[in-house]
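step=predict obj=DIS3-like exonuclease 1 n=89
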Amino acid sequence: MEMHSTVAELMIFANHWIARYCLDAFPECSCLRRHPAPRSEFFEELKRCASSKGFSMSVDSNRALAASLEACNDTNDPEASFHIHLTPY
């Protein structure tokens, strides 16, 4: 999983520099990326998994989903926390 994290960080880093380049090249224009709200039906398995360990999962918005995932940390069962974070959605 360390490689996955490294790739994710490199993608964020690349996106940052592409955005900076675009801003420098086109200062009069702004490009904003808008993420649509998550579709709740895509998260049923994740919500069931989290619920089975006593976690509440909100998928009302991307921010709520991120906060819910961040809160899914069980120090008594780190493997369950690990699997919740790896559930494909």
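step=describe
The two ends are 17 Å apart (CA to CA).
step=end
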